[in-house]
């Protein structure tokens, strides 16, 4: 009962002089008001708990350093610290905004994962396998030139040397190979896109 | 009569911090000592 009579100013003074119990009295006396105030701003119990804790850590440090000079206005002072910490919290959150992707600029138009996802990889494998099968249907001379050029990455000079034909013939065979492939694709309505 | 499906206002009355939080603060206060040295103040946490 006696504790309720002691004023905040007196408790603060006692605490500064080393009486730890005075702090306990101050916290228990005002915790509900301060915590409710913080919670009314952030609507999150854990966050309110954190800010409440930080508020009193500031209070304790200030009092212990002897930097407190607002005698008789303990609660408004603590409320102001709490208020500033709530503002700090919201500022910090604004400084690191989450990308909601609702604006005109989308970060994902600049950043991207170059690796194909599982579905696209399957489609790519399928397309490549289909093309391989189509190539198998080409006449032997055209198929040889196309495979050497596209799969073995050989130059037409190398192809002409390897197959014993002129460069122009190799070029012509490559051209017909592509024309024939396109014809087959169109004729059978084969979709070769990823 | 049509039902109203609006959320009621947040209830903020009678909210209290957890007991552990208060205990932490009291322990923190006991552990913290500020050392004065030539116009400077050092904080030391003694556990």
Describe this structure in words.
The complex is a heterodimer of chains A (194) and B (47). Chain A has 194 residues and is mostly helical. Chain A has two domains: 94 residues, Orthogonal Bundle (Rna Polymerase Sigma Factor, Chain: A), CATH 1.10.1740; 70 residues, Arc Repressor Mutant, subunit A, CATH 1.10.10.10. Chain A has nine helices and no strands. In chain A, α2 crosses α3, α3 runs antiparallel to α4 and α8 packs across α9. Chain A is rod-shaped. Chain B has 47 residues and is an alpha+beta fold. Helices cover 28% and strands 26% of the residues of chain B. Chain B is built from one helix and two strands, in the order αββ. In chain B, β1 and β2 form a beta hairpin. The N and C termini of chain B lie far apart (64 Å). The interface between A and B is medium-sized, with 23 and 21 residues.
Q: How are the SSEs placed, and which strands pair?
A:
The complex is a heterodimer of chains A (about 190) and B (about 45).
Chain A: H1 2-5, H2 8-16, H3 20-42, H4 45-64, H5 74-95, H6 118-136, H7 140-151, H8 156-163, H9 167-187
Helix pairs in contact in A: 2-3, 3-4, 3-5, 4-5, 7-9, 8-9
Chain B: H1 19-31, E1 32-37, E2 40-45
Antiparallel strand pairs in B: 1-2
Task: Kindly list the characteristics that best describe this protein.
heterodimer; A: 194 residues; Arc Repressor Mutant, subunit A; 2 domains; 71% helix; 0% strand; B: two-stranded antiparallel sheet; 1 helix; 2 strands; 26% strand
């Amino acid at each position: 009962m006696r504790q309720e009579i002691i004023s905040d100013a007196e408790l603060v003074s006692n605490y500064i002089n080393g009486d730890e119990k005075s702090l306990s009295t101050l916290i228990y006396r005002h915790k509900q008001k301060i915590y409710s105030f913080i919670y009314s701003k952030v609507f999150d119990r854990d966050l309110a708990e954190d800010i409440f804790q930080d508020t009193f850590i500031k209070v304790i440090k200030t009092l212990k350093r002897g930097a407190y000079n607002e005698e008789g206005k303990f609660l408004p002072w603590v409320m102001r610290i709490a208020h500033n910490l709530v503002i700090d919290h919201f500022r910090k959150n604004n400084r690191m905004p989450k990308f909601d992707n609702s604006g005109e600029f989308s970060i994902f138009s600049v950043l991207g994962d170059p690796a194909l996802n599982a579905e696209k990889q399957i489609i790519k494998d399928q397309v490549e396998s289909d093309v391989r099968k189509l190539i198998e249907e080409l006449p032997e001379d055209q198929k040889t030139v196309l495979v050497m050029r596209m799969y073995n990455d050989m130059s037409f000079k190398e192809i002409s040397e390897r197959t014993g034909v002129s460069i122009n013939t190799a070029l012509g065979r490559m051209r017909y190979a592509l024309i024939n492939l396109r014809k087959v694709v169109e004729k059978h309505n084969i979709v070769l896109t990823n | 009569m049509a039902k109203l499906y609006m959320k009621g206002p947040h209830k903020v009355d009678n909210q209290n911090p957890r007991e552990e939080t208060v205990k932490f603060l009291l322990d923190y206060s006991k552990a913290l000592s500020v050392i004065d040295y030539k116009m400077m103040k050092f904080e030391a946490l003694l556990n």
